[in-house]
């Protein structure tokens, strides 16, 4: 819950009333534009014991005409028989280059981007088993740093809402969801 409060505070820090989601040329200039993605991941890389459905979110703010930077979050949990439970919380920084100007894309509702970042993966697992007279409990947690590589696109249904898809390495090999532009 604290993480989501920080994300919301971070988003509102950059939100301004005079920001426009896109100019007349579409996504050829993302300076001052905020991107908020919320979705699900299909699959998970390097997360032992997973198979659960990752929940993902990212926020980026356009800092130049073609570059945006922000944060990324992920959460995945999986329970197995005999009460094995794995939980991963993934967060970090990311940056993206928006290719519309470079590729001379004239579709104002389409944004094509790719980028990289640095993520921290906090993991914990717990085993609770009560069989017969013996009760065995085991807990462990830790973390590691990994890279985030992503390539994606978003398509706007109107000025502020659309869908996005990303492929890459970090939280999930494929992410699908809704995007908000403000």
TrEMBL record:
Signal peptide limits: 1-21
InterPro entries associated with the record: OMP/PagP_B-barrel
Keyword terms of this UniProt record: Signal
SUPFAM superfamilies noted in UniProt: OMPA-like
Name recorded for this polypeptide: Outer membrane protein beta-barrel domain-containing protein
Higher taxonomy: Bacteria, Pseudomonadati, Bacteroidota, Chitinophagia, Chitinophagales
